Amino acid sequence: MSTAAGWIEHEVEDGADVLYLEGAWRLSNLTAIVLALRSLKLRASRFVLDGSRLEALDTAAGFMLYSHLARLGCTETMVDERRFDPHHERLLKLVHERMKCPPVAARSVHLGLVQRVGAAAISVWRLTRSHTGFVGALTVEALGLVPKPRRFRLRETVSQFEAVGLDAIPIVALVTFLIGVVFAYLLGQQALRYGANIFVVDGVGLAMCRELSPLLAAIIVAGRSGAAFTAQIGTMKVQEEIDAIATLGLSPVQVLVIPRLVAITVALPLLVFIGDICGITGGMMVAGWQLDVPPRAFIDRLHDVLPLSALVVGLVKAPVFAAFIAVIACRMGMLVARDARSVGVNTTSTVVQSVVSVIVLDAVFAVVFQHLGIR
Amino acid sequence: MKPVLEIESVVARFGAEKVHDGVSFSVQRGEVVALIGASGTGKSVLLKEIIGLVRPAAGRIRLLGTDVWEASAAELNELRRRFGMLFQDGALFSSLSVAENIAVPFRENTDLPMDIIAPLCGFKLALVGLPPDTGRKTPAQLSGGMRKRAALARALALEPEILFLDEPTSGLDPVGARAFDTLVRVLSDSLGLTVFIVTHDLDTLLSIIDRAIVLSAGKVIADGPVSAVMKSGDRWIRDYFSARAPQPA
Questions:
Q1: What is the pTM assigned to this prediction?
Q2: Which of A37, A59, A345 is best to mutate for the B interface (most B CBs within 10 A)?
């Protein structure tokens, strides 16, 4: 009676809806088949499926057929199959058996704005709590080393120091040198207007030693070594190496975390000092070329105006930055779940967390030093 | 009837070492065939050669009538839609949910709308015997057995004619492993699927396999029904089949 575009022919025989399935019922034709199914006008009483004209059948098409019939309110007893090829019959039987569980939506749930803010707040709170717990555990493990100093892994610490400190010297030197150049140049432009060229020395010296060099070195180390720590420890976690360390009676914190913490805490002040020198050198070169302040005069002036306290303030901040970077990086490494994606996610998170905390700490230091009257 | 898979004197080398030294066999439509052999005999390499990931040094591989290593990129892509591959640990994409994983082949290779793909993905999960709520989970939240089933659902998405399984039961408990074997056999029987399994698992071999092909020292040393292969005089085959503790009578 009605034909749905070559896929189904619908006839009424003995009060039953007979559906002659036609052509290749395959995934590649599924869109057309679904349209054909939807265009059918059925009375939902009793159905007969006739497979005599069917050329091919796969599970996707079989599923669509049955789920459409089910949506029409069809129950198992209302459908009969006849004249199917034995292969097709077996396939339909399997599809029918397995379909009894209701299907699920394939899309993942998308949260609203409020839910996202809430979830983010909760995860920040949990992370802070877990970092704090980790600092506690780290302290206990570190104190455990005091009576047994032989357990301290000097070799590992030195090799980490090489990677974190020595290998970072070129990039720290380059970045601070360039910032020194830029800073002196911009400052010089302003100072030149008032004929106050020589004050560039004050500006460059103070800014590099107190703020710029510690911040730049810390951010470079966070990006270079913090990310590396998380990736190294995280990969070990994925491969169950951390569990293996614990099983061998060793403490993962003593083996992995403390050497990294010590290495980075020692390395960062040294990098900052190198940064101070390179930044001031950059400033000195610009002063010589552009501002008629020869290096000799620059150094004499620096001697007079750069207090030792400025240098010390910069160097004191460095180990604190370093400790935060190490704790965050190692903790995020330990928090890696057992899948490959989570290594990447946690590494990114380490860099973000450590850069943010370095800048927050720097602000805290600025306020505290101001109150203590240290200039 | 033409075989769905024909391997003709395939040679593979890693550096100076010959992994395959003239491997030949064929697989007929609807067969469930196992490739066995000691570790390091290049079973997985052979699988990768068949599905077009590793190029053999010499020989011919015809899969579903197409010469895998003579085919153009377009022919190879066409061929890839016609077989499914289950990797050893599932190889589900960890950034996607299970349902999204199964949706990937539909989205990339068909123009079906989302309102058809979503229920189809749910059905594929049911087909491999996973509960419906599995679809929302991430692969990391699944146990090893469930991961393999989910990966099988993805491999079955495009209604393949031939299914390749790389060590499908490794890392599963015996109960889970047997359930997986049964599932493979049921699918093969009902869907007329050809299944090619690389395995170490003796129980898989004894329960669901039509034919076993034994690889040793770069060559096929036995090829036939499991009962015939068991009677072979080769030392490794004898040791392999007697490796299992004697069953109580």
A1: 0.69
A2: A59
B32 touches chain A (CB under 8 A): no
Q: Does A108 have pLDDT greater than 60?
A: no
Say yes or no for a CB contact (<8 Å) between A104 and B135.
yes
Q: How confident is the model at residue A1 (pLDDT cuts 50, 70, 90)?
A: very low
In this prediction, does ipTM exceed 0.85?
A: no
Q: Tell me which of B29, B92, B190, B194 to substitute to probe the interface with A (most A C-beta atoms closer than 10 Å).
A: B190
Q: Is the pLDDT of residue A86 over 70?
A: yes
Dump pLDDT digits (tens) for B155-208.
Answer: 988 888 899 998 888 878 888 888 888 888 888 887 888 999 998 888 888 888
Beta-ladder partners of B212: B34, B224
Cα–Cα distance measured from residue A275 to residue A177, given in angstroms and rounded to the nearest whole number: 7
CA distance A45 to A47: 7
CA distance A328 to chain B (A): 24
- Sequence-distant contacts of A133-139: CB under 8 A, at least 24 apart: A134/A327, A134/A330, A134/A331, A134/A334, A135/A327, A137/A253, A138/A253, A138/A257, A138/A258, A138/A261, A138/A327
Q: Which of A93, A108, A340 sits opposite B136 (nearest CB)?
A: A108
Q: At what angle do helices B114-127 and B98-109 cross, to 10 degrees?
A: 130
**pLDDT over 70 at B240, yes or no:** yes
Taking an 8 Å cut-off on Cβ atoms, the answer to whether B116 and A107 are in contact is no
Q: Is B113 on the interface with A (CB under 8 A)?
A: yes
